[in-house]
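Why do we care about 3D structure at all? Because function follows from shape, and shape follows, mostly, from sequence. That is the central idea of this module. The next example makes it concrete: a single protein chain, its amino acid sequence, and then its structure expressed as tokens.
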Amino acid sequence: MEAGNRGASFIDGPVLGSLNEAKEGKLWVLAGADPETLDRVKPVLNSISQAVYHVGAIGRGTQMKLCSNLVGAGLVAALAEGMALLDAVGLDASQYMQIVQETNLPTRLWIGKATQMANRDFSPRFSLDNMAKDVRLALTMATQHGLDLRQGEASHASLRRGAVVAGGDRDMAAIFEAARQRTT
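And the structure:
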């Protein structure tokens, strides 16, 4: 690599988290790097994160992020459909939120996105377009490894539909707007 030949080093350091975690310096870094380089930059990474995970060599951080976002997209797509069904049958979204928070169902992503959907708050934290891009890249990676991820394909289609209906620059929770459209 040219950078290495010139004495420079770098890491692959995508993050998990959203706008609130970024503002609070509490992201999670998925670091792909050689151990020596990671040790040198860890003080900087620690200043923006609550944890730094060394996941292997350069490129592995991005792979871990794509795998994570594939799961997250599936969760948000399923949540959008469940919230749309709650809405369609007239169930109370705030009661559902109480059930989610008080039972074994919740994850932070689930609670956060369900709250956004219930409040119709789709200001961007992680956009539909960005999540669709990451899921597409994860699906490409899966294909390269001989996998046929149908839930991932369905999540990608739902994200693309959400981007058309609600606008790709809106938060991925806006997938709810597409899910709640009535069929004719």
